[in-house]
Amino acid sequence: MPQRTIPDHIALAPIGERIDWVFDLARRHAETFASPGAWLARQRHLAQHPTAIMVLKCMDGRINIPVATQTPPGIIQPFRNLGGIFDLGWPHLGETLVAHVDKVVAAGRAGLVMITYHFSKGDPARGCAGFHYRTDDARAHTFQIREQVRALFGGGNVPTIFPLVCGFETDEDALVLHGEDGASLALAELTPDDAAGLPQRLAALLPGMPAAMRGDLLPLLRGNLAHIAETRQQRAAGARALDIEHREWMLCVGRGFDWLHTPNLALIVGPYSPNLEGPILQAAGIVRANMEAGRIPDDGFLLLTSVPYEQIGVDRARAVLKCRFLARFAADAIRRHDPDLAPRMTLRRAVLNWETRAMEALGDDGP
């Protein structure tokens, strides 16, 4: 289970101690992921529910779909970007998504693409900063992506790739499923006792989704009902506080940050947009504002680049080169446009072994 919050004594510690804590968090995640129990749980789940699940979501650390649905780690393939803003016309995003779908289909599996936006029912200021806390705009964007997925992968009576728009309410980690013609299903309005009726509700909401895919989606919904109930119990007992204040001191660029789901810790920029400099500078501006407001120590921030690889040899070597490029690109952009912030930047580079989820730090040497 990912650590929900950063301990207070770490949040206020010198930058070196904070960085050590982050890399230890990545190490602990990899150890858990590679454990025999976790491996067996993944294999069992995939054998029973073969539909591949992909999630397009915001970089916000609160949006942890595997935890919120009680799904074994490694089942859901995430695509994360600042603000949850995507365009399948972006060359790298389109190529990455199509490459993943090609592997899924070649294995004889269908795919479900969950396209998410997030909001807070308790306070709009806990919503998505990428859309300036305007939930209607964030929701409208997800419906645009849904149409792009349909245009890219087609439809038909039995679609192989099915796009599903989902809201994520961060106060209770509750999913909202959107069907056609404005219909929706808010799981926060149900209880675990309603789990038995989910197949009928899902069939009525999503009649175009293949029956087998609906069956593979049901465990996520049942898990979310159970998780919402647990979250409410924790809130009533005072064990879970709402993370309202932005305290990000990490700027992450690249992919392979599945281990980083601690709220208000990091701003993650996926390498998808043709204009990478824009979101990098936007994220750097948020970090600088956090320092100026005293929400985080002003002694430094971490710029971390990461690229996953699946095979040793050429694939890993390319990941190393790409990681170093992203580091140079992001650091140079910050030095040019925010020279007062740049001296407080600590740069770290890493590649991620996708099979084990082990993060491998790279030194300063090399091209």
From TrEMBL:
<dbReference type="GO" id="GO:0008270">
    <property type="term" value="F:zinc ion binding"/>
</dbReference>
<dbReference type="GO" id="GO:0004089">
    <property type="term" value="F:carbonate dehydratase activity"/>
</dbReference>
<dbReference type="InterPro" id="IPR036874">
    <property type="entry name" value="Carbonic_anhydrase_sf"/>
</dbReference>
<protein>
    <recommendedName>
        <fullName>Carboxysome shell carbonic anhydrase</fullName>
    </recommendedName>
</protein>
